[in-house]
Amino acid sequence: LLIDIIEQHKLQKYDQMGRVEKAVIELNDKKVCDGTFANGLVTAPVRVIAEALGAKVGYDGKKATVNGKIIVGSQTVGGTAYAPIREIVEAAGGRVIGWVGEERRVTISK
Fold it and tell me: Highest taxon of the source (predicted)?
Protein backbone atom coordinates (compact mmCIF):
# COMPACT_ATOMS: atom_id res chain seq x y z
CA LEU A 1 0.00 0.00 0.00
CA LEU A 2 2.76 2.46 0.89
CA ILE A 3 4.64 1.76 -2.36
CA ASP A 4 1.41 2.33 -4.32
CA ILE A 5 0.95 5.74 -2.63
CA ILE A 6 4.59 6.70 -3.33
CA GLU A 7 4.29 5.75 -7.01
CA GLN A 8 0.83 7.27 -7.42
CA HIS A 9 1.97 10.67 -6.09
CA LYS A 10 5.43 10.48 -7.66
CA LEU A 11 7.13 10.89 -4.29
CA GLN A 12 10.81 10.10 -3.77
CA LYS A 13 11.50 6.95 -1.90
CA TYR A 14 12.92 7.58 1.56
CA ASP A 15 16.19 5.73 0.85
CA GLN A 16 16.88 7.99 -2.16
CA MET A 17 16.38 11.31 -0.40
CA GLY A 18 19.48 13.12 0.75
CA ARG A 19 21.82 10.34 -0.33
CA VAL A 20 25.44 11.54 -0.15
CA GLU A 21 28.16 9.96 -2.27
CA LYS A 22 31.88 10.61 -2.70
CA ALA A 23 32.94 12.65 -5.72
CA VAL A 24 36.49 13.03 -7.03
CA ILE A 25 37.85 16.37 -8.27
CA GLU A 26 40.71 16.30 -10.79
CA LEU A 27 42.98 19.01 -12.17
CA ASN A 28 45.40 18.23 -15.03
CA ASP A 29 44.53 14.52 -14.82
CA LYS A 30 45.52 14.37 -11.14
CA LYS A 31 43.22 13.98 -8.15
CA VAL A 32 43.04 17.18 -6.12
CA CYS A 33 40.66 15.95 -3.42
CA ASP A 34 37.42 14.19 -2.65
CA GLY A 35 34.17 16.09 -2.51
CA THR A 36 30.57 15.04 -2.01
CA PHE A 37 27.72 14.52 -4.43
CA ALA A 38 24.18 14.96 -3.12
CA ASN A 39 20.94 16.07 -4.75
CA GLY A 40 22.70 16.73 -8.06
CA LEU A 41 25.36 19.01 -6.57
CA VAL A 42 29.08 18.45 -6.02
CA THR A 43 30.64 20.26 -3.07
CA ALA A 44 34.31 20.38 -2.14
CA PRO A 45 36.70 21.97 0.36
CA VAL A 46 37.05 25.62 -0.66
CA ARG A 47 40.69 26.08 0.36
CA VAL A 48 41.98 22.90 -1.30
CA ILE A 49 40.35 23.63 -4.67
CA ALA A 50 41.08 27.36 -4.72
CA GLU A 51 44.74 26.95 -3.75
CA ALA A 52 45.19 24.19 -6.34
CA LEU A 53 44.10 26.79 -8.90
CA GLY A 54 46.50 29.41 -7.47
CA ALA A 55 43.81 31.56 -5.85
CA LYS A 56 43.84 33.46 -2.56
CA VAL A 57 41.41 32.13 0.07
CA GLY A 58 39.84 34.01 2.96
CA TYR A 59 37.61 32.80 5.78
CA ASP A 60 36.14 34.81 8.64
CA GLY A 61 34.44 31.95 10.48
CA LYS A 62 31.15 32.54 8.64
CA LYS A 63 31.88 32.96 4.94
CA ALA A 64 34.60 31.86 2.57
CA THR A 65 36.08 34.08 -0.12
CA VAL A 66 38.20 33.23 -3.14
CA ASN A 67 40.14 36.10 -4.72
CA GLY A 68 37.93 38.44 -2.69
CA LYS A 69 34.65 36.99 -4.00
CA ILE A 70 32.18 35.60 -1.46
CA ILE A 71 31.50 31.95 -2.17
CA VAL A 72 27.73 31.45 -2.26
CA GLY A 73 26.51 28.33 -0.53
CA SER A 74 29.60 27.71 1.60
CA GLN A 75 29.08 25.69 4.77
CA THR A 76 31.52 24.76 7.49
CA VAL A 77 31.83 21.09 8.40
CA GLY A 78 34.38 20.08 11.02
CA GLY A 79 36.28 23.36 10.65
CA THR A 80 36.49 23.11 6.84
CA ALA A 81 34.47 25.31 4.48
CA TYR A 82 32.74 23.38 1.69
CA ALA A 83 30.92 24.90 -1.28
CA PRO A 84 29.60 24.01 -4.72
CA ILE A 85 32.55 23.16 -6.95
CA ARG A 86 31.52 25.52 -9.74
CA GLU A 87 31.36 28.50 -7.33
CA ILE A 88 34.89 27.82 -6.09
CA VAL A 89 36.42 27.14 -9.50
CA GLU A 90 34.91 30.16 -11.25
CA ALA A 91 35.89 32.51 -8.41
CA ALA A 92 39.45 31.17 -8.73
CA GLY A 93 39.48 31.93 -12.46
CA GLY A 94 39.11 28.32 -13.55
CA ARG A 95 36.51 26.26 -15.35
CA VAL A 96 34.62 23.05 -14.75
CA ILE A 97 35.34 21.16 -17.95
CA GLY A 98 33.96 17.70 -17.33
CA TRP A 99 31.61 15.51 -15.35
CA VAL A 100 31.48 11.72 -15.48
CA GLY A 101 28.30 10.92 -13.59
CA GLU A 102 28.80 7.17 -13.30
CA GLU A 103 32.19 7.74 -11.65
CA ARG A 104 31.17 10.88 -9.75
CA ARG A 105 34.25 12.62 -11.19
CA VAL A 106 34.61 16.35 -11.89
CA THR A 107 37.43 17.70 -14.06
CA ILE A 108 38.53 21.30 -13.59
CA SER A 109 41.11 23.50 -15.34
CA LYS A 110 42.85 26.81 -14.77
Answer: Bacteria
